[in-house]
Every structure is written in C-alpha cells, then in structure tokens.
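Re: that backbone. Tokens:
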C-alpha cells in the first residue's frame, strides 16, 4: 500500500520538515557526483556499520577511525538509491508536518534526530556482527510515524493498492495503516534474525526501535497548549 495523503491539515508551515528533506536531497546529490568506488567508501565511512563498534580488531584492519561515533548521526542522511530517498522523504512529508505542528520546529528536529540515534542503537543490538553499512532516514522517520499514530489515530490516510494493472484507492484510519506498517517491520525483523546469513538490505529493527521510541517518548517534545483564561466576573 502506498500512502498518497492524509486528511489532517497542519496549522503552520512545516519549515523543519522541509529543511530535513532539503538536506537529505543535497546529500543524495553529493553521492551521485562520486564515482562508484568512492561512493562505496563514502557509505562505509559515514554509514552505520555495527561491526565497527563490536569488533575492534576488524575495524582496525579495515581502517576505521578509532572512537568515531558520528556515523550514528550521519548515516540517517545517506540513501542507497532514488527509490530509497524518494520513499523516505515522501513518508516524512506526509506525516512529519503534523508532528512538527505539535512540537514546533526545533523540538521536532531534536525528536527526529534522537529517534534516528535510537534506531541505530536497535540495529546495533540486533545485528552486532554485521559489516554491511546501514544508511537511510527510515529509522528517524519511523519515530515520527510512531508519534503520529499516538497523536492522530483517527486521521484518514488515502492509500493506493496496485492490483496487477488496476489501481485501487481507499482510505484507512492512521491507526490501521501505521499499525499494519509496524507489524510488517516486526515480522520481517523477526524473520531476519532466524536466518543464518548476514543481514543486509532493509534495517527492519531500526524501524521497529525508532517507531516504538517515537510512540512512547514523544510527549515531552510537545508544545504546551495554552489554557484559555476565563473572563473576569464584573464588579457589582
């Protein structure tokens, strides 16, 4: 199912959501300018490689800098291809504006980055021996989706379901759409742990960790709503 739009208008321009999308787009353009061999090295240096932190001997042999934890942050601004970056930014655009509306731009940025860091930690905990770089904003965006689910469970999401050559359009409550999305991530992550091969491709557990963190920990980032003061009683 491909989400096309939600029925939940935002009150303020999503300036931080747009800024995050712009930064991701600029970094992706930079990636495209690199030759293939340098691009691979770029992913290994700035992407998140779990074995870099769990196997110091291997990391030293490969040549990773010692004590460099920036990839926890930089990895969430890298993408492996057009579909990867477009899909991630589309989800952020659809669901990020309303969450930013409730938090404000700066708090939303802090929440987004923190979700990305927690997602990387979840990937490290479940794939600690992997030498495959993890890149992409999906862990941070999963945190935004988790917050959206709790804040707007009854919002409607228009989705497209392609059946062979026939497009089917229908609306689902956000609770159902995002709930199904999370179940897919959880099931796929569990299936990946059952395999004997090194996990690559999709960072399922980064999605799961980011989503759960965003759903549970978003409230301290919300703006306080002003209480309407009652008019004073007239003097008699």
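Recovered sequence:
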């Amino acid at each position: 199912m491909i989400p096309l739009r939600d029925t939940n208008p935002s009150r303020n321009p999503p300036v931080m959501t747009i800024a995050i999308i712009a930064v991701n787009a600029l970094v992706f353009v930079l990636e495209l300018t690199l030759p293939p061999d340098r691009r691979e090295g770029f992913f290994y240096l700035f992407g998140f490689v779990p074995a870099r932190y769990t196997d110091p001997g291997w990391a030293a042999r490969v040549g990773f800098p010692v004590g460099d934890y920036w990839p926890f942050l930089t990895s969430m601004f890298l993408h492996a291809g057009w579909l990867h970056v477009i899909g991630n930014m589309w989800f952020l655009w659809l669901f990020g504006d309303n969450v930013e509306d409730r938090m404000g731009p700066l708090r939303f940025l802090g929440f987004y980055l923190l979700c990305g860091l927690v997602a990387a930690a979840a990937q490290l905990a479940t794939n600690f021996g992997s030498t495959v770089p993890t890149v992409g904003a999906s862990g941070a965006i999963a945190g935004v989706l988790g917050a959206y689910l709790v804040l707007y469970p009854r919002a409607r999401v228009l989705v497209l379901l392609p059946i062979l050559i026939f497009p089917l359009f229908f609306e689902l409550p956000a609770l159902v759409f995002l709930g199904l999305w999370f179940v897919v991530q959880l099931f796929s992550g569990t299936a990946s742990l059952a395999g004997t091969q090194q996990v690559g491709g999709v960072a399922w557990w980064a999605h799961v960790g980011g989503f759960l963190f965003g759903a549970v920990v978003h409230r301290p980032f919300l703006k306080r709503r002003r209480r309407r003061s009652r008019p004073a009683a007239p003097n008699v």
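The longest strand covers residues 156-163. Confidence is low (pLDDT under 50) at residues 196-200.
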